[in-house]
Amino acid sequence: MFEGIIIKGVAGQYTVDTPQGQYVCSARGLFRKQKITPVVGDRVKINGSTLSEILPRRNELQRPRIANVDQVMVVLSIVQPAFDFTMLDRYLIHAEHEGIDAVICINKMDLVDADIDILKKVHDIYTQAGYSVFTASANTYEGIETIKNILYGKITVLAGPSGVGKSSIINSLDLEAKVATGAVSEKIGRGKHTTRHAEFIPILPKPEFSEFEYLPGYVIDTPGFSSLDLPNVELTERAVLFREFHPMLGQCKFRDCLHRSEKDCAVKDQVGISINPQRYACYIDWIAN
User: How far apart are CA 88 and CA 86, in angstroms?
Assistant: First the structure.
């Protein structure tokens, strides 16, 4: 019996990566009776060609459905399709909800000339919120070495809507696996889905990255989504998912403060100072719906 990690799942067949090699397995019939579905990222035990046990998950993302992720790299394009602040905030909220670190990649920098104000706005808002923001271009290879350093030794999911260049970024990393890419629809301004399932792609460190020699990593190419539902969280718990609110939480006059219309609210007092008004507006919209 071997232990490994599911790196691909298609039509009930699961590719499991183990120290002894890769195996294609079918799940035990008992899983179906218990309504248990293995997902990419699950750490499992296999016996021959049978996936016999799923080990406890550290975390799980729902869209895309992936388990045991170390970090999320949220990829959005500066144009084609246009940068989507609402989508970015939703991905960050999901990452915070799952306790997964997140970094922000702004792709298609070769098309940035007309949108430099947007770039500065993104950088200012999200670095103030406590996130790492970096730029890249899969066409010119700008930022690709930075991405490699971020990916080595970790399991990373690339999240973002279709057409922003996630698959192109993976292909520019010069890995053994290549993934399909597609053009952005001129009619709707969004990308066409070219990735049909979640799949782990191994990150093999180059020899000069000796500090990562014993830390293999994976990057997950995922289907893009044009919408993303927010997690079902109690109103009083939603402020916790905005990391820039953390220093103020517990300092309001009222213990059940929603930081909306209450007096003596430590969070509201910081709006425009340590909390960006746009991020605060995102929070207010969420608790109002």
Answer: 5
43-61 average pLDDT score: 90
Residue 206 CB-density burial (10 A; 0-12 exposed, 13-18 middle, 19+ buried):
exposed
Instruction: Give the whole-angstrom CA distance, residue 239 versus residue 246.
Output: 8
Residue 214 makes CB contacts below 8 A (sequence gap 6+) with none
Which pTM value belongs to this model? Answer: 0.80
Neighbour tally for 209: CB within 10 Å: 14
Would you give the end-to-end CA distance of the chain in angstroms? 49
Within its chain, how far is the Cα of 123 from the centroid?
A: 18
The answer to whether the CB of 73 falls within 8 A of the CB of 157 is yes
Nearest alpha-carbon partner for 66 in 142, 6, 130, 137: 6
265 half-sphere exposure, CB direction, 13 A CA radius: 14
Greatest extent of the chain over all pairs of C-alpha atoms, in Å:
64
CA distance 271 to 258: 14
Whole-angstrom distance, CA of residue 152 vs CA of residue 62? 24
Among 228, 227, 234, residue whose Cα is nearest residue 287 = 234
Amino acid at 189: G
The answer to whether the beta carbons of residues 81 and 54 sit under 8 Å apart is no
Give residue 251's pLDDT band: very low, low, confident or very high (50, 70, 90). very high
Q: How do residues 184-220 score in pLDDT, each as one tens digit?
A: 433 434 444 444 567 788 876 554 444 444 456 888 8
* Residue 239 · residue 259 · CB < 8 Å: yes
State the DSSP string of 224-239: --S--PPP---GGGGG
pLDDT > 70 fraction of the chain, expressed in percent and rounded: 83
